[in-house]
Amino acid sequence: MGTESGPAPGSASVSALIVDWGGVLTQSFNEAVAVWAAAEGVAAGEFDAVLGRLLGPDAVPDGGPNPFHRVERGELSAAEFESALAALLRRTDGTPVPAAGLVQRMFAPFAMDPVMTGLLRRVREAGVPVALLSNSWGHRYDREGWDELFDAVVISCEVGMRKPEPEIFRHTARLLDRRPEECVFVDDLGRNVRAASALGMATVHHRTAAETMEALAREIAGLSSVAGRV
What we know:
- A 6-stranded mixed beta sheet has the order 1-6-5-2-3-4, with helices on both faces.
- The chain folds into 2 domains: 5-27 and 110-229, 3-Layer(aba) Sandwich (Rossmann fold), CATH 3.40.50.1000; 29-107, Orthogonal Bundle (DNA polymerase, domain 1), CATH 1.10.150.
- The protein is an alpha/beta fold.
- The radius of gyration is 18 Å and the shape is globular.
- Helix 7 (146-149) links the parallel strand 3 and strand 4 (152-155).
- It has 11 helices and 6 strands.
- The protein is 41% helix and 10% strand.
């Protein structure tokens, strides 16, 4: 399947890139979490069920007492979130999951994809400013090399907003000195892509680096020369 994008490609007004972290600049969320779950002794299906209850279609509406939403906005500390999450999980042998350090252990398998980081470098070399926009559960990012990749970094818990809330997209665009309709946003989650599109942003639903580069080359004038170099 091809990468979905919108609005209509080729708009000359699109001149900045906003990109997600987990699942876009790293391996997929499910792949990385499966590594953590195996090491932690947690059934991956049980963790998926927890996520489904709290983040799926039947989850508590946004704004309710949802620990995932609250930690992403910075309303819960990482330690408080770890306690809440650990209480929902059990190892396959029935023992509890240690709360201390849980989030950092969970995100330890996430690694930046060299193909995607190379793509971002080429985008910036073409004169296109780039911002990172990431929802965070309070983990520490490995930010080595980020100065070479991003003109701005927006981490949800540091700004008190989370995707898909409209203001976090507007805030990120302002940091790039752009209007939302002058930006293209890349994310692996459909709800975030739809929220950005509703603000007038061009969007790319990320699946692979090659498809995303092809989509960006259609959206941003001047990127066609690097589309085949992923």
